[in-house]
Every structure is written in C-alpha cells, then in structure tokens.
Amino acid sequence: MELTGWRGSLYHYMDWALKLAYLNILWLVGIIIGIGIAGFFPSTAAMFSVIRKWTQEEEDIKVFAHFKNEYKKEFLQSNKYGYSWAVLGVIIYVDLQFFRGIPTIWALIISLFFFILGAIYIVSLLYAFPVYAQFQLTIKQYFKNCLLIVLSNPLFSVLMVLGFYFPYYLMTKVPGLIPFFGGSLISLVLVIISNRMFETLEKNNKKYIEEQEIK
C-alpha cells in the first residue's frame, strides 16, 4: 500500500535521510581505509557516483556494492585528480601570500589577480566531483570543463556556492549531524544543482545545432 499525503511525504524524506546517513558512513569508512590521505578522494568519487545514480532515479542500486566498485576502480585516477586540485590550490595560496607581503603597487595588482584566481578556483572546486561523476575525461579536460562552466554560467556558480554554504552552515550549528550527513548532504545538493546545469547546457547545445542546421 502506497502512502499518500503528509505520511507519504514524511516517508519519502525519512527514506532519503536514511540513505544519506548510510552513504555518509560508507564515505567515512572509505576515508579511514585509505588512511585519510589516500582514501579521501576515491571515497568522495564513489559517494558522488552513488548520488548521481539516485538523482537519475536509479534508487534501487546496491549502494554498498556500487560504492565499493567505484572506490576500487577510481582509486588511482581520483587521487591523481584530487591531488592535482590540491597542488593547484596551494600554488595559488602561496603566490597570493607572497605578493601580499610586498608593499608595492605592482605587487598589489598581482595579489589582486591571484585573489580573483583563487575565487574562481574555489567555485571550480565545487564542480570538480559532480563533473568527475558525470563524464569520462582526462584530468586536463576535467579542469578545463570546470573552469569553462564557472566562467560561462555565473548564476549556477552562485547557486553552487550557496548549495555548499547552507548545508555546511547547518553542520557547524549542529555538529552531531556531521557523522551522518557531513559529506552526503552537501554532495546531494551539489549534484542536484550541477545536474540542472548539465541539462541546461545540453538543451542550449541542441538548440544551437538545430539553428545551424536551419541556416
């Protein structure tokens, strides 16, 4: 018997809460198995892959089996990808701090450039794993696509920042939620927003192709 009304809505949200809590625990276990430094990125890639399946209405997937397979399959590639982002972030931060310490006009201009570059980097980082879960590309192509998405879709970029901030803010106010929703809830919001953006880009691309064919 299918529940309707407020009972149906309550069941739906409780079901999602339980699934997210279970996935978050798997994510934390994956990080621990990899001793943190080697486990964070493959565990995150596996978590985004599961959420992508859910948002594509493949809710009947075997979560543990899919998570385990993705974790093992993407272990090396996701670490290369993740630590490439980490190295880039360190370079931008070090350069920014270096030029901020030089009391000249030209250094101020350069530090402003690195500040803007850092802001673009942070927003691009929010797209890093949604794009990784959606497409099969080279590491260079992943970076290129994340950057192009940020620069060409400012509205969605703002939504991605807000989509990260509000769940993060909730976790800081209620720390007890972190073991159950610290990663999975943020990932769900980012995937939902990025999926909408992917759909918009696909529609615009089809429209452009149709217009070219008419011409």
What does the model show?
The protein is mostly helical. It contains 9 helices and no strands.
Uncertain spans, ≥5 residues at pLDDT below 50? none
SS-derived structural category: mainly alpha
Tell how many strands the DSSP assignment holds. 0
Number of helices: 9
Shape: globular
- The string of secondary-structure elements, in order, is HHHHHHHHH
Q: What is the average of the pLDDT values?
A: 90
Radius of gyration: 20 Å
**Gap from first CA to last CA:** 54 Å
Q: Tell me about the biggest sheet? A: none
Instruction: Please indicate the percent range of residues in DSSP E strands (runs of 2 or more).
Output: under 5%
The helical percent reads over 70%
Comma- or semicolon-separated keywords:
215 residues; 84% helix
Give the topology:
Elements: H1 5-33, H2 40-55, H3 63-73, H4 75-100, H5 105-134, H6 139-152, H7 154-173, H8 178-181, H9 184-214
Helix pairs in contact: 1-2, 2-3, 2-4, 2-5, 2-9, 4-5, 5-6, 5-7, 5-9, 7-9
Structure summary:
This protein is mainly alpha-helical and 215 residues long. The protein has helices at residues 5-33, 40-55, 63-73, 75-100, 105-134, 139-152, 154-173, 178-181, 184-214. The longest helix has 31 residues, at 184-214.
